[in-house]
Write a structure and sequence with these properties.
Blueprint: H1 4-19, H2 23-28, H3 67-70, E1 78-82, H4 88-97, E2 102-107, H5 110-123, E3 128-132, E4 145-151, H6 160-170, E5 171-184, H7 190-193, H8 196-200, H9 209-218, E6 222-232, H10 236-239, H11 245-254, E7 258-266
Parallel strand pairs: 1-2, 1-4, 2-3, 4-5
Antiparallel strand pairs: 5-7, 6-7
């Protein structure tokens, strides 16, 4: 696998391409980017269309769950959406938080930020904003959010330890996160982890479930629970674009699965009181 900065640039490029087209194009192509050379980014997605606040212009079919369904957002809450894309989850979160709430979307792809801002301008929300920024170093003050959500994005972050420490920093004491993400039931072989395109497609970037949970717990969170879990089946013809039949057969023989999970955890009410990083 390439170094972390190269991975980030590759992810930016792929999601910039996706931002330039509609969900229907993603779904009608074999890879989600309008050609037959990439990963089908919609294979992980769940149906948003019946949720209040749903806006079809903001739905690019890029998620792997419905984090707002489990996020326990209350009226007047400040909610931060990590990897906000075209604004899909942010607008649904705004519906729940109401006019006195606040929703901040963060994304490091300029094309996604622009698309989200255009969608927000059409909707006329004055309590939703989208900021350009990196999840590993958020442009947000400490102790800001009541709730943090994210949908199939943290698996794309090369340094997940930094990401969850930042989530901890930005949450208010007593706040919580609810994120949908992709994990594995075992460690992926190098033949999969080394393919950059599979990283951008939320496959190679996925880590083992127990490791994912340990990172969260080591970041200081409590009351962790998995709210939903489902196995993701990626069509063989997609995987065979990137790995050999032999490697695919070996992967299948291991019984390793890609799993979509929705994870919840609380930031404790009391912190050590000596700075953002002292407890980590």
């Amino acid at each position: 696998m390439e170094n972390k900065e190269n991975i980030k640039e590759m992810v930016k490029e792929k999601y910039a391409d996706i931002a330039k087209q509609f969900k229907t194009v993603n779904e009608s192509s074999c890879c989600g980017t309008g050609s037959c050379t990439g990963v089908d980014y919609t294979v992980f997605a769940e149906d948003y269309t019946k949720l209040k606040g749903y806006n079809p212009d903001a739905d690019l079919g890029l998620g792997c769950g419905l984090p707002t369904e489990f996020a326990l957002i209350k009226e007047d809450d400040t909610v931060i959406d990590l990897g906000s894309g075209a604004g899909n989850d942010a607008f649904i979160a705004r519906e729940i938080a109401g006019e006195k709430g606040k929703v901040i979307g963060i994304d490091f792809t300029n094309e996604m930020i622009n698309k989200a801002r255009e969608n927000n301008e059409k909707l006329g929300f004055n309590n939703v904003e989208f900021r350009f920024g990196d999840i590993e170093k958020m442009p947000i003050t400490s102790n800001k959010a009541d709730v943090i959500i994210s949908n199939c994005v943290l698996n794309l972050v090369p340094d997940k330890v930094k990401a969850f420490k930042e989530i901890y920093r930005v949450l208010k004491p007593g706040g919580h996160f609810s994120v949908s993400d992709i994990v594995t039931t075992g460690e992926l072989p190098e033949s999969v982890k080394s393919v950059a395109e599979l990283y951008a497609g939320c496959v190679a970037g996925a880590i083992e479930k127990d490791e994912y949970i340990k990172i969260i717990e080591d970041s200081g969170f409590v009351n962790l629970r998995i709210q939903k879990e489902r196995v993701i089946n990626i069509p063989e013809e997609i995987m065979l674009k990137f790995i050999s039949q032999k490697d695919l057969d070996s992967l299948k023989a291991t019984g390793i699965n890609l799993v979509s999970i929705n994870v919840y955890a609380d930031k404790p009410e009391k912190s050590c009181g000596c700075g953002d990083d002292c407890c980590n």
